[in-house]
Design brief:
Layout: H1 4-8, H2 31-37, H3 39-60
Length: 62
């Protein structure tokens, strides 16, 4: 397992900042693709919210 100190390291130069995680290649995903793969997260969030409302009503409403 790597700790944060090991990942950043001391030998990256005198600037003390280490390596920049935004340098180099990056993966870019369009908004449409992101929505398509995250649709299940929205559905599960809605189900969780409805279950929470139901459980709260069952527990505290008299």
């Amino acid at each position: 397992m790597t700790s944060v100190v090991d990942a950043v390291g001391d030998d990256e130069g005198d600037d003390g900042g280490g390596r920049n995680p935004f340098d180099g290649d990056s993966i870019e995903v369009s908004e449409d693709q992101l929505r398509a793969v995250s649709r299940h997260v929205i559905v599960l969030g809605t189900v969780k919210e409805r279950l929470n409302k139901w459980a709260t009503g069952l527990t505290y409403d008299r």
